[in-house]
Design brief:
66 residues, 0% strand, flat
Amino acid sequence: MIKNNPELNKFYRKLIEQENISHKEALSIYEAMHAEAVSLGIISSENILEGLEVDLRIARAINGLN
């Protein structure tokens, strides 16, 4: 595992600059991914926020460990 490597940070900064997309493009990608997940039955389009409270509690517990 690489930790705090300046070369890796430089790589990520350059990658972010090159892959800059507009909000409209990002939203289009998100909507396509959401439609794909619904069509595969991974998530339900009826209640997309279902289970969010559990995920938030888990995230808070994990973040509290640091």
